Amino acid sequence: MTGTVRVLLADDQELVRTGLRMILETEPDLTVVGEVGDGEAAVRAAARLAPDVVVMDIRMPRLDGVEATRRVVAGGPDTPRVLIVTTFDSDSLLGDALRAGASGYLLKNAPAEQMVDAVRAVAAGEGLLSREVTRRVIEGFAGAGRSAPDPALVVRLERLTDREREVLGLVARGLSNQEIADELFLSTGTVKTHVARLLAKLEVRDRVAAVVLAYESGAAGR
């Protein structure tokens, strides 16, 4: 995306919100358009203020961040993207947040520059899963077992070309576009095109959603 990224902060601790605002508003391309202290307020503010990114805590009063995320993104691809930022380094919370539609997951002890990069990445539709987080997603899906895939999901997967399936598998391993390009001996521009096409065919809004879909369906292998 181009222009200024509009950010809504949702955290029940005022000190945390203040710190996040200070970090983000030092950047000329980021602006904080609102702050809220609970999940219900986050849902209402997201609808009213139309931010590009909601930086969402997990544990909040009245409505937790997972359910708030689910409601924020329920309107489809034009709704704000959600970056979960939390102190809770929990595999179960991670899985719940990603299934709810979060586009990224970051711990509050991350460096300031990583926070800034994460907001930009999520706003751009790239999503944010570190290699470590991706590994834990893989282990979580593997450990939980898998039921028969949704027939509608199977139909979407069948739309992919062989090359797009190959790229999806590498995305699901946590590889960046440059790493995928190196792996497949392609240009990064070609990889970006493949990623954009597979996201459209799978009807998902970013790479994180594609990773979740790949593991839920078994398309990523084991």
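Second entry:
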Amino acid sequence: MAPDEPGKGLAVVTGASTGIGYELAKCAARDGYDLIVVADEERISHAAADLKAFGTSVDAVEADLSTLEGVDRLTERITASGRSVDLLMANAGRGIGEGFLDQNFNEARKVVDTNITGTIYLIHQIGNQMRSRGAGRILLTGSIAGFMPGSYQAVYNATKAFINSFSFALREELKESGVTVSCLMPGATETEFFKRAGLLDTAIGQSKKDDAGEVARIGYDAMMDGEGDVVSGWKNKLQAAVANVTPASVLAYQHSKVAKPGSGTK
């Protein structure tokens, strides 16, 4: 069997304690992959215990992937396993609401460090190993938010614009290497993201959202099929298409109506 066939590989999933990351880990476990799951909270151990029900090996790592030290902790655990990574699902992400000047700067910086710095550092580490052996699959969790200026989520949307762009560029660079790069770009999804980002009183925070399990399956299948990018859900596909032909100033205004604090109570 090839290294990435079910039952023979190792999958690493970041941000896997809840939400899309946890559901991505379930997809890999169902396919027979052993797992290393990572998050910056104790709940990652509980998630790992649940994932073991699929009959594969599951190793939980609690690490803050917004720091280089946290990423190093993860890569050291991977090295200690003595195995190569066949699937890397770089899903760890953080959001923050309110107007940029009203945000705590350290919290805003942590969004950048989690969504961008830690993500590309991890991919640089694992991607080089994959390229050296000529095999591997990488899935990044971007967002349709990356297609529009995110008024009242300015930092978050900008980080997702980076991830979307980065994934397309990296895919092109690695197209002859045997390593595939895919980008999952979901819309609003039913996870704890909105609570953690302080967005529960907004229109988007109170809106009907996509199912995390379904979103994860779409992204996982795209990665396994070697697709470059996938927008989950027809409404999100339409929104992404409209964003491509709408002036940025209009998009910023529209975003403010759903993300401005208190917009969910009007």
